[in-house]
Design brief:
two-stranded parallel ribbon; two-stranded antiparallel ribbon; mainly alpha; flat; 2 domains; Adenylosuccinate Synthetase, Chain A, domain 1; 158 residues; 6 helices
């Protein structure tokens, strides 16, 4: 049986609101309707650049589940996140690594031949930025790249 303790807090609404007024004054001028701002910028002839983090195959919908992140990482998600329509996107540029890398336990062909901490990993400084764990490096995977081109609508590949 699970033991639960219920804590009852006596919160005073007016005091809480007043304590947050400082934030309103400090950050209020920076709060805008971002989608409206971006739409107007495009109408004024300005160019937009969206940058994505994570990789295509970490995408919660199209990635290699269960070894995914908790969000959408494919290019189309930039529209949803920024609040712009897909017709505002002219190009999708893919910056692809030559070798797939990973620091977790996701199954991969590279697991069979590449072990963490080998000279190939150390040569490229391949360690997880957050965890510091050695990354496993593998070979170029043209099948995954072709799928990434399809999922992201890539128009330029580097």
């Amino acid at each position: 049986m699970l033991n639960c303790t219920i804590i009852r807090l006596k919160l005073k609404f007016d005091e809480i609101v007043e304590s947050y007024r400082v934030f309103q004054d400090r950050i209020g001028p920076f709060i805008i309707d971002t989608s409206e701002y971006l739409f107007r910028a495009v109408r004024q002839g300005k160019k937009l650049l969206f940058e994505g983090a994570q990789g295509t195959f970490l995408d919660v919908d199209h990635g290699t589940y269960p070894f995914v992140t908790s969000s959408n990482t494919i290019a189309g998600s930039a529209c949803t996140g920024a609040g712009v329509g897909p017709t505002l996107i002219n190009h999708v540029i893919e910056l692809s690594r030559h070798t797939p890398r990973g620091s977790g336990t996701a199954p991969s062909p590279r697991n069979r031949t590449m072990k963490p901490g080998r000279p190939s990993d150390q040569f490229g400084g391949e360690f997880g930025a957050t965890t510091g764990r050695p990354r496993r490096c593998g070979w170029f995977d043209s099948v995954l790249l072709r799928k990434a081109v399809q999922l992201n609508g890539i128009t330029v590949l580097h």
